[in-house]
Amino acid sequence: MSARILVTGASGTVGGATARLLAAGGHPVRLLGRDAARLPDPGPNGELVTGDFADPAALRAAMSGIEAVLVVTADPRLPGHDANVVRAAQEAGVGRLVKLSALAVAEPGAQDFITRWQREAEERIRACGIAWTMLRPRAFMSNTLAWAEGIRTSGTVRAWPADARAACVDPYDIACVAVRALTEPGHTGRAYALTGPAAVTAREQTEVLARVLGRPLAFEELDADRVRRAAEVRYGAEVARALQESAERRVQGGTSRVEPEAARLLGRPARTYEQWARENAALFAG
Ligand SMILES: NC(=O)c1ccc[n+]([C@@H]2O[C@H](COP(=O)([O-])OP(=O)(O)OC[C@H]3O[C@@H](n4cnc5c(N)ncnc54)[C@H](OP(=O)(O)O)[C@@H]3O)[C@@H](O)[C@H]2O)c1
């Protein structure tokens, strides 16, 4: 059977989970990443392809014969990658684009560098003439994997902000919705706001992790500027500033709203942070 669904970002968090669900369901998938060794098993009806978003010819080849694409791009500093993906989809005659975006694009107060990039990428897709669905998640629960090293080495979570709420979402739930949007009719022209079932703080997430891991954990609130400087070293000034602005929106209460869409699409409650932590406990262990 020839592959009909292409998953980009298939070695990553959401793309990987979507790829595994599609493969387990026997769907004919093609998984794209830069290194085949990092891609999940595509299943008996699937295949792996390698290619870079910077390489239009590789993208065209990856999209040949493809009906639906999960679009996961990762670098706000490289909007040319998003443009290349859309152009290749047009040239290959792809029928449907399901884009992993972000909930902040729907919030006029969110004008940071990352959100503007996502907004422009959505606009490009809406204007390209291919049927589309936007997945707009709040912060991923898996972002707390950044705490794993501190937990392993000193039993301490160091983060900022400590007590601001976000209705963070399990990437597995995003992947379940992505599978529906890629494989069923009825999702064209829809933008889905995807949150978890409750708005939680970093301090509360630490308490959950301590319970799940069965060991006490300390919480140390970092200084906002120190967090920004560390992000600057890793991602550059523009992305670091955007992450800080996003955290400031969290402090101001802008990320705490629980949306009903995920549970409606999943046909069950969205997964809690505790469920995510139990599922991923091994990643925090020594
Ligand atoms: N984290 C959050 O809280 C959050 C919230 C809302 C929205 N989002 C959005 O979610 C998206 C990221 O999703 P994710 O966290 O699932 O991804 P991820 O785990 O960061 O993985 C990124 C994926 O993109 C691939 N990739 C990176 N550069 C590439 C290139 N030049 N060519 C081809 N493939 C490339 C990587 O593959 P290889 O490196 O293996 O090639 C990997 O599969 C972003 O658009 C982000 O804005 C994130």
What would you say this structure looks like, in words?
With 286 residues, this protein is an alpha/beta fold. The protein has a domain at 5-138 and 170-195 and 257-270: Rossmann fold (3-Layer(aba) Sandwich). It has eleven helices and nine strands. It has a seven-stranded parallel sheet with strand order 3-2-1-4-5-6-8, sandwiched between helices. Strands 7-9 form a two-stranded parallel sheet. β4 (68-71), α3 and β5 (96-100) form a beta-alpha-beta unit. α1 packs across α6 (171-183), α2 crosses α3 (79-92) and α3 (79-92) runs parallel beside α4. The longest helix is centred in the C-terminal third of the chain and has 15 residues, at 237-251. The chain is globular. The model has no long low-confidence stretch (mean pLDDT 97).
Q: In a few lines, what is going on in this structure?
A:
By secondary structure, this protein is an alpha/beta fold. The protein has eleven helices and nine strands. The chain is globular.
Report the major sheet. 7 strands, parallel
Strand content: 5-15%
In the CATH scheme, the class of the domain at 5-138 and 170-195 and 257-270 would be: Alpha Beta
Counting helices, strands and paired strands, the structural category is: alpha/beta
Low-confidence stretches: none
Distance between the termini: 43 Å
| CATH T-level topology of the domain at 5-138 and 170-195 and 257-270 | Rossmann fold
Q: CATH homologous superfamily of the domain at 5-138 and 170-195 and 257-270, by name?
A: NAD(P)-binding Rossmann-like Domain
| Overall 3D form | globular
* CATH architecture descriptor name of the domain at 5-138 and 170-195 and 257-270: 3-Layer(aba) Sandwich
Compressed to H and E, one letter per element, the order equals EHEEHEHEHEHEHEHEHHHH
Q: Output mean pLDDT.
A: 97
Bound molecules: NADP nicotinamide-adenine-dinucleotide phosphate
Number of helices: 11
Give the number of DSSP strands: 9
Order of neighbouring strands in the sheet with most strands? 3-2-1-4-5-6-8
Tell me the Rg in angstroms.
19 Å
Helix content: 40-55%
Protein name: Nucleotide-diphosphate-sugar epimerase
Organism: Streptomyces cinnamoneus (Streptoverticillium cinnamoneum)
Pfam families: NAD_binding_10 (PF13460)
Domain NAD(P)-binding: 9-185
